[in-house]
Design goal:
Elements (H helix, E strand, L loop, with lengths): L4 E7 L4 E7 L5 E8 L7 E6 L2 E6 L6 H14 L6 E8 L10 E2 L2 H9 L8 H14 L5 E5 L9 H4 L6 H6 L8 H15 L7 E7 L3 E7 L2 E5 L22 H9 L3 H10 L2 H6 L5 H9 L3 H25 L4 E5 H6 L1 H10 L9 H6 L6 E2 L8 E4 L4 H12 L3
Parallel strand pairs: 1-6, 6-8, 9-12, 12-14
Antiparallel strand pairs: 1-2, 2-3, 3-4, 4-5, 7-8, 9-10, 10-11, 13-14
Helix pairs in contact: 1-3, 6-15, 7-8, 10-11, 11-13
This protein binds adenosine-5'-diphosphate.
């Protein structure tokens, strides 16, 4: 039977993540990961039915080569003619886009205009769009922006307390990220809880390698922890999150570092990794803490404490909290962190159920608070690819 399949692409500067989804069932028929793109030893790995196959991209070791190899793989699988549209994850749409859009020349220009707001990501996203247009000729392309969902934030939530001319002249403001995940998870949470999304105050914590939290009131984002860049907010795998801005001049003056070097320290050497001096990976941190590693124990506590403080501040943003939602690799699996956060937030009416909390991992989701908890906490697996596929199908008129 012919199915309507959507190809979802998520391009980084040297990587390409792809997935082919059946938009109706959500089934993933194939996924791939291109790595070292731009280097002579670039390759792409395909995963079909649990089997992996690696293809070297010798002739064209770049994004176009990776998309070309993807097309060959689809031909081999007999799926090529069933691909009906392509959806692209794009990090920043600035203030111009509050929703996903079909790719046109004007959209490409707008993504280029937003490069100063996402200098590492938007250029890579554009490479993916161009490669898809070149290789899958004639198919509609749709872009789904990470920032779009947060465009409903009120001015008092997105404005920094610095001279306003920087906002007017440079667009310097808080934008937020992980928007596609929040949109998906907010809808799922309402469904799982049997509530109307348009009458629901959610605080959602998306905890992956990058981590953020958002207040979603009646289906709309009203605040989130990431700002101009994904460095602001929570403690993350290697990112510091919130910090006294004077740390910049303190480190630069004392260690004779450039601004870029301090930025690298805060983005790549901080967070769980910096505190624990062990790992940026939550599993390794949990294991370390269980074995009495002092740095891992402290990292786990700081991560949870800072997250709990943000839960309270997001409850202010939403004007209350009906449910706290955990998602992302850590949110979906780490019972230890969830329990710490819920204990810190007991005063808000959250009461953890130990057994339910421990059971919610490896794809098992559901409520993790006790029946007499005033506020519900729930684990909901995110699925950004499916959200992108749905938008792509809708905007392509499928
Ligand atoms: P990304 O931001 O790259 O999409 P993920 O959402 O995949 O990240 O989350 C990665 C994080 O999830 C890592 O810190 C990893 O250690 C953590 N994680 C994955 N599985 C588990 C687990 N079983 N227990 C604790 N943490 C986990």
């Amino acid at each position: 039977m012919t199915q309507k399949l959507i190809l979802v692409l998520n391009c980084g500067s040297s990587s390409l993540k792809g997935a082919v989804l059946n938009n109706d069932s959500g089934e993933v028929l194939m996924s791939c990961l291109g790595e070292k793109l731009g280097l002579p030893d670039a390759y792409i790995t395909f995963k079909v039915n649990g089997e992996k196959e690696k293809v070297e991209l010798k002739e064209e070791p770049n994004h176009t080569g990776a998309v070309g190899a993807l097309l060959n793989e689809l031909k081999k699988l007999g799926l090529e003619s069933q691909i009906t549209a392509i959806g692209h994850r794009v990090v920043s749409g600035g203030e111009k886009y509050s929703e996903s859009v079909l790719v046109t020349d004007e959209v490409v220009k707008a993504i280029e205009d937003c490069i100063p707001l996402a200098p590492l990501h938007n250029p890579a996203n554009l490479l993916g769009i161009r490669a898809a247009q070149d290789i899958f000729k004639g198919l509609p392309n749709v872009v789904v922006f990470d920032t779009a969902f947060h465009q409903t934030m009120p001015e008092h939530a997105y404005t920094y307390a610095i001279p306003r001319k920087f906002y007017r002249e440079l667009g310097l403001r808080r934008y937020g990220f992980h928007g596609t995940s929040y949109r998906f998870v907010a809808g799922e949470a309402a469904r799982v809880l049997g509530k109307d999304e348009n009458n629901l105050k959610l605080v959602i914590a998306h905890l992956g390698n990058g981590a953020s939290i958002a207040a979603v009131k009646n289906g709309k984002s009203v605040d989130t922890s990431m700002g101009l860049t994904p460095l602001e907010g929570l403690v993350m795998g290697t990112r510091s999150g919130d910090i006294d801005p004077s740390v910049y001049s303190f480190l630069a003056d004392n260690l004779k570092l450039s601004i870029q070097e301090v930025t690298d320290i805060l983005n790549k050497q901080s967070g769980l990794l910096g505190i624990s001096e062990l790992s940026n990976d939550c599993r390794a941190i949990e294991e370390g803490a269980e074995q009495g590693h002092e740095g891992a124990t402290l990292a786990l506590e700081i991560f949870s404490y800072r997250l709990a403080k943000y839960v309270a501040s997001m409850a202010v943003a939403a004007g209350g909290i009906d449910a706290l939602v955990f998602t992302g690799g850590i949110g979906e699996n780490s019972g230890a962190i969830r329990e710490k956060v819920l204990n810190y937030c007991e005063f808000l009416g959250l009461k953890v159920d130990g057994e339910r909390n421990l059971a919610a991992r490896f794809g098992n989701s559901g409520v993790i608070t006790a029946d007499d908890s005033k506020v519900t906490a729930v684990v909901i697996p995110t699925n950004e690819e499916l959200m992108i596929a749905h938008d792509t199908a809708r905007l392509s008129g499928l």
